[in-house]
Amino acid sequence: MSSNLVRLAGKRYISILSRVWSGSAGAAKYSEESLRKTLQGKFPQAKNVVVSDISGGCGSMYEIFVETTEFKGLTTVKQHRLITETLKSEIKDMHGLRIHTAIPSE
């Protein structure tokens, strides 16, 4: 605990580190790879499936990009809903999720 205290002008101040708030680097319940495999299983025709942990390594925030012909004819909202339904159980343990979808050009 003493490592989190800083003395300035004779007074003690608590030093808040970002890691304290975001958890430890190994705290992620799901990995980028496990989420990517889940999405590839749901969208086998996907040309691209990219999952990035944007939380600094603690697994609380992910950015997802899925490019597949399976989205053809669907609105963006419906495309995103397919992603969130696929990751429904995983999303419960996340702080946030950014979803990007695309249909490959022919």
UniProtKB/TrEMBL annotation:
Domain of life: Eukaryota
Entry coiled-coil feature ranges: none
Family annotation (Pfam families): BolA
Homology family: Belongs to the BolA/IbaG family.
Name of protein: Bola bacterial stress-induced morphogen-related protein
Organism encoding this protein: Culex pipiens pipiens (Northern house mosquito)
Highest classification ranks of the organism: Eukaryota, Metazoa, Ecdysozoa, Arthropoda, Hexapoda
